[in-house]
Design brief:
This protein is of the alpha+beta class. The protein contains six helices and seven strands. 20% of the residues are buried.
């Protein structure tokens, strides 16, 4: 009979290594919890101080827009009022500690995309980005309110602009369409270097970022995913393995996909089930 001997010392070393890894894991979890607690405290204080200035900015923008006779200045005042309204709405959500509301209405993708492009124009110019927008049909409606849709577009486009800024080919594409499964597919593609496979899931974790600290908080993608999930959809990231392929996908390396349920139009008045006018 062959005798097998176990070295107690080696078992202890293995246990020690395992315990050490577990301690590191728990330490990381505690650190993350502490970050969230600290963030919550700071956000509560910040929100309290932000509300009144934002309301004042919105009110003065309304007043300037109403009194100004110059069309260009009046248009800028309306834009300032709209963006102040977006911030007031976001502040209200944080103050009431509500989760994403799925009953707040719908938004026209083309209209919101136009406003977002105007808002991010300085980033477009700085990075020298060639932005292409493809929405089919043009009247595409998403089951998000305009504030949430703007959040999603600003975060995804800003990430894409950052990804291509150092590239020779600086193209970003925003596309919206209806799929054969009656889903709405919103995609943002870029010609950056791409996200490594081992980081593709981690970039969706809060506070994880591949950017320099002064340029990234690690909250943009998680917020977008939360918004999509709250409305019955999802956000995923895929890498185009062969960016040299021809056609409209040529050169794109990273694609962020947001899938949402289609908007159900209410039946027209005067129509009964199965009837016609």
């Amino acid at each position: 009979m062959r005798e097998t001997r176990r070295d107690p010392g080696s078992v202890d070393e293995a246990c020690a290594d395992e315990l050490s890894l577990e301690v590191e894991r728990l330490r990381g979890m505690l650190l993350q919890a502490a970050k969230l607690a600290e963030l919550g405290t700071r956000v509560a204080a910040l929100v309290h101080e932000m509300n009144q200035p934002l309301v004042a900015i919105k009110a003065f923008a309304q007043m300037i827009g109403a009194q100004c006779e110059d069309e260009a200045t009046s248009r800028r005042a309306v834009f300032i009022e709209q963006q102040a309204g977006v911030l007031v709405s976001l502040v209200d959500r944080i103050r009431t500690h509500t989760r994403m509301d799925t009953k707040e209405g719908t938004a026209h993708l083309g209209d919101v995309a136009s406003r977002v492009v105007e808002l991010l124009d300085h980033l477009l110019r700085r990075a020298g980005v060639d932005l292409v927008i493809e929405i089919e049909p043009e009247s595409l409606i998403l089951p998000l309110d305009e504030v949430q849709l703007q959040q999603v577009l600003v975060n995804l486009l800003t990430n894409a602009f950052d990804a291509v800024e150092e590239q020779e080919d600086r193209r970003v594409r925003l596309a919206g369409s209806e799929t054969a499964n009656k889903e709405i597919l919103l995609t943002v593609s870029d010609t950056g270097v791409g996200i490594p496979e081992d980081l593709r899931e981690r970039v969706l974790d809060p506070f994880f970022t591949t950017k320099d600290p002064e340029r990234g908080t690690g909250l943009g993608l998680p917020i977008c995913k939360e918004i999509a999930n709250a409305h019955g959809g999802d956000l995923t990231i895929r890498r185009c393995e062969e960016p040299s392929l021809g056609g409209k996908d040529k050169g794109y390396r990273t694609v962020v996909e947001v899938r949402l349920p289609s908007v159900v139009e209410p039946p027209a008045e005067g129509l009964e089930k199965g009837g016609t006018l």
